Amino acid sequence: MRDRFQENYGVDFTTDENYDLVIDTDDLTANEIASLIIEYYQKSSAATKIPSINFHLWQPCNMRCKFCFATFQDVKQTILPKGHLSEADALKVVEQIAAAGFQKITFAGGEPLLCKWLPNLIKKAKQLGMTTMIVTNGSKLTEAFLKASTAYLDWIALSVDSLEEETNIKIGRAVTSKTPLSKAFYYDLVDTIKKYSYGLKINTVVNKVNYKDNLTEFLAYAKPKRWKVLQVLPIKGQNDNKIDAFKITDVEYKHFLNTHKNVETIIPESNNEIKGSYVMVDPAGRFFDNAQGTHKYSKPILEVGVAEAIKTMDYDLDKFFNRGGIYNWNKTNQYTRKEKANQDA
């Protein structure tokens, strides 16, 4: 066998130097072996091992959520007056992200649907082999966009903090902070998203104003594949001026979780679980992390490349795994759309 490998592949598979990790398993249990493998994996450039990435490509937003922990006003005021890269540069960032091996990309903002070239970014990402997702407040999510994007967009993450218009006005989850989306709008939007067989994810930020809300009936109707419930997060430099009115205690956060304990797809994310567990790129095309309660930025990806830029980031692989960052994101659309096509035929 050794000779055959050597002849066919030019490799001596018995030589330890050919492997990243070699373990003598004679005196170890299965659990001990697994622990050694996991430990090595975590230490080997953990930041680049996280397979999903959030690209906050667009700083502008048509809503004014007062607790928003990604306003990027600092970016706009210092290096990016328009609040976004050009289409050409944004495409290059996507290309470099894909080349670095990221498997899933989420386009976020601001409000990403304000970006006229978002469809081109989604298409590029899909052509490069990544699972694609957008995070949107829903106000600009039209049926025309959903119909046109079926070949390249896999997931829709819809931000829904409350179905009560008065509550949404208080927290700023309203167009220009004045016009909230109605309960009927959210129900209709869910119907349209499902009409085109997208994977549906719902994000809810639990805060002082909405922690007593009950979304159980809506969730039973929407049936999201994932419902991410995030504890409102103070981030220095992003929401300092308004966050005090929206902070909640752990007890209040748990009250909301207990209200919805029977929702099977719930994914709780406390402040501690959020910090440092996401690989993120800002509107200027730089990696950033929030591990220390503020945004720390890398050098621009287009200047130094992904491998160099990500070295300065504080991303926690354990937290990524523990918050359920890995899930079956690949098969959502391929099968449901194929089944739907067969039914239509």
UniProtKB/TrEMBL annotation:
Family annotation (SUPFAM superfamilies): Radical SAM enzymes
Keywords assigned by UniProt, alphabetized: 4Fe-4S, Antiviral defense, Iron, Iron-sulfur, Metal-binding, S-adenosyl-L-methionine
UniProt xrefs under InterPro entries: Aldolase_TIM, P-loop_NTPase, RSAD2/Viperin_antiviral, rSAM, rSAM_sf
Claim: Transmembrane helix is one of the keywords in the record: no
Cofactor(s), by name: [4Fe-4S] cluster
Domain named Radical SAM core: residues: 45-268
Entries under PANTHER family matching the protein: RADICAL S-ADENOSYL METHIONINE DOMAIN-CONTAINING PROTEIN 2, S-ADENOSYLMETHIONINE-DEPENDENT NUCLEOTIDE DEHYDRATASE RSAD2
Protein name: S-adenosylmethionine-dependent nucleotide dehydratase
Lineage start: Bacteria, Pseudomonadati, Bacteroidota, Flavobacteriia, Flavobacteriales
